[in-house]
Amino acid sequence: MYQNKLSYSGAVTLLFLTxxxxxGLVFIRGSVVAPLDFLKLTGAVIGLDIIYLLITLSYxxxxxxxxxxxxxxxxxxxxxxxxxxxxxxxxKHLISCVMCLAACEAGFLLxxxxxxxxxxxxxxxxxxxxxxxSIIFFTDNQKKWITLGSFSIQPSEFxxxxxxxxxAASIVELHxxxxxxxxYLSKDSLILCIAALCIFALQWWCHDLGSxxxxxxxxxxxxxxxxxxxxxKISKRAVAIACVAGVGILIAAWMFAxxxxxxxxxxxxxxxxxxxxxxxxEALIGIAKGGWxxxxxxxxxxxxxxxxxxxxxxxxxCEEWGLLYASLTVLLIxxxxxxxxxxxxxxxxxxxxxxxxxxxxxxQMSLNIFGxxxxxxxxxxxxxxxxxxxxxxxxxxFLVGMLKAGQSPLFQHEVMKRKKQKQKQKSAKSxxxxxxxxx
Amino acid sequence: MQEIISDxxxxxxxxxxxxxxxxxxxxVILDLFAIAxxxxxxxxxxxxxxxxxxxxxGLELRRRSEQKEYHxxxxxxxxxxxxxxxxxxxxxxxxxxxxxxxxxxxxxxWTITDLNSRSGTFVNDxxxxxxxxxxxxxxxxxxxxxxxxxxxxxxxxxx
Lengths: 439, 159
Fold this sequence. Notes:
- The complex is a heterodimer of chains A (about 450) and B (about 160).
- With about 450 residues, chain A is mostly helical.
- Chain A has helices spanning about 5-30, 35-55, 65-85, 90-110, 115-120, 120-140, 155-170, 185-205, 210-230, 235-255, 260-265, 280-290, 315-320, 325-340, 350-370, 390-405, 410-439, and strands at about 145-150, 150-155, 175-180, 185.
- In chain A, the strands form 2 sheets. A two-stranded antiparallel sheet of chain A has the order 1-2.
- In chain A, helix 2 (about 35-55) packs antiparallel against helix 3 (about 65-85) and helix 3 packs antiparallel against helix 4.
- Chain B has helices at about 1-15, 20-55, 155-159; strands at about 60-65, 70-75, 80, 90, 100-105, 110-115, 120-125, 125-130, 130, 140, 145-150.
- At the A-B interface, helix 1, helix 2, helix 3, helix 14 and helix 17 of A face helix 1, helix 2 and strand 3 of B.
């Protein structure tokens, strides 16, 4: 805060105004039946705004814009989700939003110090292995969900931030190379490639081919950053072989994809309107019905369709709020990713981390939006921040925390300074204690 | 209590405002929020730059050729010097190795490390493997000379 008082107070005021204007729209254009439900929603939105802003502004940070953006998008998402099929506070989504904000802070604190992450890289790999084991042994029949009473967790969502972290942490050790066959490879790159292959194989085994492009994009980003990293000394031959192999794998995947994937790739949604193309047809009709300004919050009919609040959430928002508002909300997420470009990271670790997070978000958003508009095959990937789901929201929050860490990194000498200060404080305290004991 | 709420509700519902005006107002406010965030991010980037100047001791590299003087800002905590196009600071000089030396910064102190280059790295005409640098030092890589100098303070930095 502190040095940017004017711009921050302006942003906070507009944040409140954005949410109030949305609530005003719900009140006037929406189908409010029970006033108490509407008041509950208003209280939850404004309460979350105030509490999170008080917590964030209570301690000094280098950057607050990502916090404001995240809070703004999450509360917009809470209003959207609370209006599907009638107005009433969606408590489940409110809890997801709170968990997302907590995950953001955790991500920021854990990934700020690049030296620490590099040192503890093996623990991240261990975490990935544990997540693998949980998916293979504890999920129900390749369904990728672990059910704990009334809660269900999707462990594959948590692999995303871990994978980006190992991609980033291993980039600076590229110059230590081993000769394997005809190639000079660094140990870290080799481990990373094996980890990536295992993740792809697991996605294939789980029939979760929607997440596969997201992981593929992160891995491509990691490879690209490696080519840009000067000390990597990657030869043109290696780049050419990698490109040919990549194209070959894509062609093979397209040709030998399982039957259910082939169906989705070649489905004519209008010919099979009540079969495989049902969701997309309804989504497209919903978008057309909504027009520019929508039919009003709670007045839509897409809420009756399966996965209206996750896989085809963009269409549901378009129907109720209009294409204009839905597009602007997506633009807001893009602006959140763009603000990172204004303050480029100062080391390769944070640069790779930022690039990986941006790639993951962009890929997921494209798959969801273009999928529900029938521009690409329907994948069933969630739309970051706007779709319902605790695991997805927590993972997205952690990823935003990583972006924040890239904006205000902790340099090594600052860590040393803090340690010295703590040591001084400790010694002063012990000296005081001794004096008291003596007296 | 419920009666009061329902009366208040009826009174509010009686106001008629066109949908178009309301929706347009909401869209404009959302746009303004996005603009405010972009402006705040711009101001923050200036602050972060000031912090970086502290971390990097506000130094830059200069190279003089026959016609021109080149300024290289030190904008990362690890800068690779060499002939290769992927180096952070590319020196198109055949006597410079492809990956010649690397400069790193910790707590405002820059250090240069030679990467087993052919012609060696010299600081103030002394061959070095690794050396701490100070403002005013002359770094020689092959036949190219670089000077580490303090960056002139601009008006923006002073703000």
